Amino acid sequence: MSWHILGAGSLGSLWATRLSRAGVPVRLVLRNRARLAAYQAAGGLTLVEDDQANLYPIVAETADASTPIRRLLVACKAYDAEAAVASIASRLSAEAELILLQNGIGSQQEVAARVPRARCILASSTEGAFRDGAFRVVFAGRGHTWLGTSDESHAPAWLDDLTRAGIPHDWTTDILTRLWRKLALNCAINPLTVLHDCRNGELANHPEQVASLCAELAELLLTCGQTAAAEGLLDEVQRVIQSTAANYSSMHQDVAQGRRTEIGYLLDRACTEGHRRGLALPRLTALQARLKETLALRGLPTD
Ligand code: NAD
Ligand code: KPL
């Protein structure tokens, strides 16, 4: 059974190349004919791993192709996922399963609402990848991917494909806890790295700011019923700051490269969820306002 991969960017290419080299059939779904022509000219996707570059001539098509889609990895940014899935919705077979890699809270739910008959599997990944050229991806950080559904259903048999491809993963019955925890980590770290224009490790020089944000985020998680996600949040944030000290956060990278950020599904979502429940969240709200100011000053979307 073929995997279709929608969004041949960093993470989509990282999955596509590893699946393909393990002998799993993969098809890329590209945005339009111009992208398809550029891809064909490149001869495939290149994965750079441990300084070794390998080219994988994976089959590609556009959204308007006619092959039915049974298993779809959605690897677009959070703000693009719903429209991208809408563009292939008519090709989804009756048993279609979608694996949603989007960061934050809200985008995966938008996709699930758009294709209510499909089985949507939510994923939370700590792997790291970036593009260093057209159709080239650099595997930058080993990590783990957690997969699960919001109704806590059984693990699919195709997880074996991930094992064969060497993609470290686990099935979990508490994927929402993982997603909320990651949202909190990203809200505590990413915006501050943009405002201080620094690597993750330099946040160790702002311990009060980090601690007060974590206190509000933990309060938010508890109010949202995410008790497990709130436990030991500050300790984990401090550990991530140490263990990723030399890295720039994904939001910092987006801003530095003039790309839209995923603020709408991270900090905005956290503030909205809190305000809806009557929480004031003064520090998170002030952080949100300062981040939006910075984005606007750079001419970037503030949502
Ligand atoms: P990316 O920008 O590198 O790739 C997204 C790709 O989707 C782009 O190639 C874009 O052209 C494509 N796309 C957008 N709309 C499309 C459409 N309608 N049809 C076809 N293709 C379309 O993004 P990324 O870094 O791979 O991130 C994807 C998601 O994974 C994000 O939510 C991100 O937060 C999450 N994530 C990324 C990493 C990482 O290391 N890159 C790690 C963990 C989670
Ligand atoms: O996930 C991350 C990101 O940059 O988006 C963290 C955990 C902050 C590591 O950089």
TrEMBL record:
This is 2-dehydropantoate 2-reductase. GO terms for cellular component: cytoplasm. It is an enzyme of class 1 (oxidoreductase). The keyword Oxidoreductase applies. It catalyses: (R)-pantoate + NADP(+) = 2-dehydropantoate + NADPH + H(+). Residues 3-151 form the Ketopantoate reductase N-terminal domain. Its EC number is 1.1.1.169.
